[in-house]
Structure formats: C-alpha cells, structure tokens
Amino acid sequence: MAQATTQTVSISIPEKSAFSWKNLWIALAIITVFEIAVNVYERTFAIAKGLDYFTPQYQTYWMSILYTELILEPTTLIALCSWLWVTRDRAMENLAPAEELRRYWNLGLFVVVYTVLLYWGASYYTEQDGTWHQTVIRDTDFTPSHIIEFYQSYPIYIIAGVGSMVYAMTRLPAYARAFSVPYAVLVGSPLMIFPNVGLNEFGHTRWFMEELFVAPLHWGFVMFGWGALAILGTWLQACPRVLELIKQVYYGKPATAPAVVLNEPEKVTKMELCEI
Amino acid sequence: MQQVAAEAEARALERKFDIVVLVSMFLAILSGFHIHQMLTAGDWSFWIDWKDRMWWPVVAPIMDITFPAACQAILWSKFKMPIGATFSCAGLFFGQWMNRYWNFWGWTHYPLNFVFPETLLPQAIVLDGVLMITNNFVLTALIGGELWGWLFYPSNWPMIAPYHVPVEYYGQLMSVADLIQYEYIRTSTPEYIRMVETGTMRSFAGGVLGVSAFFSGFCSVIMYFIWWYFGYFFGWTKFVKHSKV
C-alpha cells in the first residue's frame, strides 16, 4: 500500500483505477455463489435429512454445519481484525488527500458488502425461518433454518460490519481517535441481534413453543433492527469529508488537514463542506 | 483542458459515491424495516386469512409508518429528497417478495395467493407528496398520517377482495381465504392463534372497517411524530472520543 509521507499543495490526480468497482464485484460474486449454494443445500437436505433431530443423519448433515461454522466464524473475525490492526496506518497525520479519498472509497465498498450481507441475514433468512416454523413442529433449538439464520448469516454480517469499522478506525483520520456514534450504532445494533438469540431461544425452550411472529418475546430483535437506520447518520457524517477531499484533489481547493481531523473529527461533518 | 478533464473525473467520482450511498442505504433500511415489520405486524402480512377488517388495518399502518417517517426526517431535511417513505417501503416490498416467492412458495410450497404481502406503496407516495408540497413535517404528520391509515385498506382491497367471496364447505360458510388456510396446513399456526375480528357485544357490525381505519390514522399521526424524531437521532453525526468510552 502506497504511503504518502509529505503534505503537498499541488496534488496529482489519482488513477481512475483507484476508484474501481472490481473488489465489490468480486465480493458480490462470492456472496451470490455462497448464498445460492446454501439455498440449494437447504432445499436438498432440510426435508430429506433435517426433520428429526434425533437421527444420525441430522448429526451428519446439519449439526456438522453448525459445529464447522461456529469454529470458522470467530476465527475469521479475529484474523480479519488482527490483520487490519497490524497493517494500520501509523502516521495518519501525514495522509495524502488522494490516498484518504481512496480509503473512503474502499470503506464505501466495504459498507455495501456489509449491507448486502445484512440483507441476507436480517431480511432473507429471518423471514425464511417464518416459513420453516410452519413446516415442522420443532424438536430442537438447532433447526436447519436456525443453523443457517442465527449461526451462519448473522455472524457473517457481523464479521463484515465489525471489519468495516476496524478498517475505518485503522485507515481514516476521522475514525482513528474517536468513535463515530452513527457508525457504532449501524454496526453494533444489528450485531446485538445475535446475542438476543439467547433470549429468544430461552423463551421458546422454557416458555412457549407456538409461533406467533409478533409475540413480545421477539421484540428485542425489533429494537436492534432499528439501528440499521443509523446508515443515515453514517453517510451524513462521512459524505462532507468525501466531497471536501474531492474538491481538494480535483479542484485544488484547501481542505482540513488530517492532523486536525484526527483530533477534531466533527470539523469535517458539516454540511457546508458539501456546497460547491 | 486539464482542468476540464479533472472536473469531469470529479463529477464521475461523485456519482460513484452516490451509488454506494444509495445502494447501502436501500439495503440497510430494507433489513431494519423488514425485521421491524415481520416481528410487529408480520403474521397479518404472511397469511391471507389474517387479513381481516379490524386488526390488520390497525396494526399494519401503525407499525409501518415508522421507518418512512425516520427516512423522511433525514432525506427531506438534509437533501430535499422527497422519497423517504417510498424508498423504505419499496425496500420492505422487495424483502418481503423475495422471501415469499423463494421461501414460502419455493421452499415450503405455500401458494403465493396464500402468502402475498400487503402493499404500502400508494400510501407512501401520498406521504412523500404531502411532505414535498407542504415542506412541513407537522402538517405531514397530521394530514399524511391520517391518510396513511385511511388509504391502507382501500389500496389493498383489490388484492384481497377475491378471497372474501363466500363458499359453502361441508355445510359451513367460509370465505375463500378461510378455505385456503384450512387446506394448506401450517404446523405452528392453529386457528386460535390468529388475531382477527370475532365480533363483540359492544360493537356495531357494520362500522368495523371505517372505525379501524380512522383509529389507525390517528395512531399513525402520533407514530409519525415519534419516528420523525427517531430519524433525527439516527441521523446524528456525533463522535465520542476513545478516552470517554
């Protein structure tokens, strides 16, 4: 990764390839192939092998998935965050504007990937569970649908969300010494949907089995789902800085120095910066 | 010449960031709204036999005006984009249909005319229109909120009316909707679970729907106010220093 060490007044315009969609397309292709594979697996083995928890087939075809993903997910999260931390920018006050702009672009693509995975987790697989509830009378908390919904799709979007936040904290001056409240809510609140499964499963196991989707037992998910609205504040906070950098890089206008942004990140969240 | 080229590149880059913002916003709001909707009004949305005259037109509008109001609070106030309600409702619609088609029908084979979702788009367009014309969220709450509740049933009626045709089934009067749920077995939704109008000794049978729509319009007004301010909260651009956490 190219590191600028000096602040210059005249700025060379970055290559167009610095703002390429390529990484996003690769990520979306991987996600799409993976999700199609998961759906095919569900359609192949949920009814054939996943109706009775107390059979050996269930252990082979479904519990093995659960154990595997429960090992892979925390490993991935730790590896990703460690790598982002070890390769962090240690001289952010010297960050060149073009490089900062490029990093905002990477962050933007990271957030898109996060929201795509959030869609699969919070919308697709969550309501999918609604129809599986109408297909079985469950004999375990670990139904095929729960193994995919709670223990696969939720952790995956959490990895992407936390990863994107660590990327911002280790690469961008605005996020390096302060927590962005909307970004923390955007990542943290849907993250809490996963721990809330604890309440949900306790309730269903100990309290009532029948599946009223609107039961108060489920409202914890609802409150944590609200946090997705913080995408509004996240972009409201980041966009003025992006436009300020574009104006600096392409029009040669002065912009707030990274050293200032590091210490006073709120300086670059003002809407006035968006005016031409 | 070089300056012109640089400006063109800058504008292209701004458009690219616009796409990133819009796509991520659409998906995030879709996900949050869908979770909220399915766990507060979902059961009425899933099944044709829950779409009654008393509870469905009360619960669905009240619970579904939430995200539209919050999105409007930011998109209109900060960007004068009059699409907050339609944007969020289109997202919800996408999430619901993807799931009803691929899962309710595609995986577990409930027919689509049993599990199609309600529509909110006509009311959402009205809500956005009222905000755009008045440029005033108080008036939008009062007028748009009432219209949101009133318009819900009329805009859904063309879809559900065919299922309210009566049939005689083994000597019993049933609607087609009742018959569909009777035929397509749901393991975890016995008939007594569903919350639909059953009649009371204190109600007048003819006035159910109008009263429900009026009540839900009134509650939607209140929800709109609350969620407009929620929108402000979620659009807060505050930073907190690491040392304070």
UniProtKB/TrEMBL annotation, chain A:
This protein's UniProt keywords: Membrane, Monooxygenase, Oxidoreductase, Transmembrane, Transmembrane helix
Highest taxon in the source lineage: Bacteria
GO MF term (any one): monooxygenase activity
Pfam families, per database record: AmoC
Residue spans crossing the bilayer: 24-41, 61-86, 107-125, 151-169, 181-199, 219-238
InterPro entries attached to this UniProt entry: NH3_CH4_mOase_C, NH3_CH4_mOase_C_sf
Protein's name according to its UniProt entry: Particulate methane monooxygenase PmoC subunit
Native organism: Candidatus Methylacidiphilum infernorum
Lineage: Bacteria, Pseudomonadati, Verrucomicrobiota, Methylacidiphilae, Methylacidiphilales
Gene: pmoC2
TrEMBL record, chain B:
Species of origin: Candidatus Methylacidiphilum infernorum
Domain of life: Bacteria
TM spans (from-to): 17-35, 55-76, 83-102, 130-153, 204-230
NCBIfam families reported for this sequence: AmoA_BACT
Gene Ontology molecular functions: monooxygenase activity
Keywords of this entry: Membrane, Monooxygenase, Oxidoreductase, Transmembrane, Transmembrane helix
InterPro entries found in the cross-reference section: NH3/CH4_mOase_suA_sf, NH3_CH4_mOase_A
Signal peptide: none
Protein name (Swiss-Prot/TrEMBL): Methane monooxygenase/ammonia monooxygenase subunit A
Gene3D superfamilies in alphabetical order: Ammonia/particulate methane monooxygenase, subunit A (1.20.1450.10)
